[in-house]
Design goal:
Order of helices and strands: EHHEEEHEHEEHHEEEHEHE
Strand order of the largest sheet: 1-2-3-4-5-12-6-11-10-9-8-7
CATH architecture of the largest domain: 3-Layer(aba) Sandwich
Shape: globular
CATH class of the largest domain: Alpha Beta
Largest sheet: 12 strands, mixed
Number of helices: 8
Number of strands: 12
Number of domains: 2
CATH topology of the largest domain: Aminopeptidase
Helix content: 25-40%
Structural class: alpha+beta
Distance between the termini: 25 Å
Radius of gyration: 19 Å
Length: 296
């Protein structure tokens, strides 16, 4: 049986998402927050597949509210390994794409951890690879202390308001390599993500200039002893001074002090600067994240 997801499904959805990509940091609480706070204009549809009295598949899709690109949308499907090759994923995907088309979507994208099985299924459904980048991991307990040039200081993100960080994040997002530009960066949507339960504001770091403005940042998402990097960036006029590296070092070291033993992240192949920073920090490859796209 396929039906719309309810709040009671949150633990099962978190389990399925982690089975599809154990580098993700997700929790039932985060799923509930996203469900209850997502904007109506996103037209999000969240489906589950039930078999033998348990949730064995999930599918979620919606319009991309972070871009001005007309008709842009996204989707994701995964099925418990024991229940694959029965057409469950095909049916979830079909319903999601029908939903997207009904709401004006003309193109869709899916971000997932690459596997041979995943690529084979996506290709058979008419999806093609748009972007890829190494998935990397690090023990943050080995990261050296940060250092900053004169005129800057590091603070935990808990000492910064989302309104104060917004402009630095918005500007950096415009330069992030992605098939669809993040050029509709809305403060309300940013605050919604800021408030996600996995967003670790004590470990996440901000670099302030002499006027107290946020000019660089690095976000960390945590759940237990595992974490993943959120977005890291620097405002254009302050780049080339090691500010992003310093923010990442402080974020990683603080996460380690709070009990985290593994941090994962990924960057597009085209993002040479950030990939170089991560190599110097000691991140090592453990897989690949990819973005596939489909013309609807």
């Amino acid at each position: 049986m396929i039906r719309e997801a309810t709040d009671d499904d949150a633990p099962a959805l978190a389990r399925l998402a982690l089975a599809a990509d154990d580098a993700r940091v997700i929790s039932p609480e985060a799923i509930l927050h996203m469900r209850r706070s997502r904007p109506e204009r996103a037209r999000t549809l969240e489906l589950v597949a039930e078999a033998d009295g348990a949730v064995v598949g999930l599918g979620i899709a919606g319009l991309n509210v972070w871009t001005t690109t007309e008709g842009a949308s996204w989707g994701f499907v995964t099925v418990d390994a024991a229940y694959r090759r029965r057409g469950i994923g095909d049916e979830l995907g079909r319903r999601l794409l029908d939903h997207l088309r009904e709401h004006g979507a003309t193109k869709s994208q899916c971000f997932f951890r690459w596997t041979e099985e995943g690529e084979r299924w996506a290709t058979a459904q008419g999806w093609t690879k748009l972007l890829g980048g190494p998935l990397i991991a690090l023990d943050p307990r080995r990261v050296p202390e940060p250092s900053l040039p004169e005129g800057y200081r590091l603070v935990p993100m808990s000492e910064v308001t989302p309104e104060a960080a917004f402009e630095a994040v918005r500007e950096s997002a415009l330069d992030e390599p992605t098939p669809t530009p993040h050029d509709a960066f809305d403060l309300d949507d940013f605050v919604r993500e800021w408030d996600e339960p996995t967003n670790d504001h004590e470990s996440s770091s901000a670099v302030l200039d002499e006027d107290g403005r946020v000019v660089a940042f690095s976000f960390i998402l945590t759940a237990g002893d595992r974490a993943s990097h959120g977005f890291t960036g620097t405002m254009r006029e302050h780049r080339g001074r090691g500010l992003a590296t310093a923010a990442k070092r402080r974020a990683l070291r603080t996460a380690a002090e709070r009990g985290v033993t593994r941090v994962t992240t990924s960057n597009a192949e085209e993002n040479a600067v950030m990939r170089g920073i991560n190599r110097k920090l000691g991140f090592e490859p453990i897989g690949e994240h990819v973005i596939f796209g489909k013309d609807l």
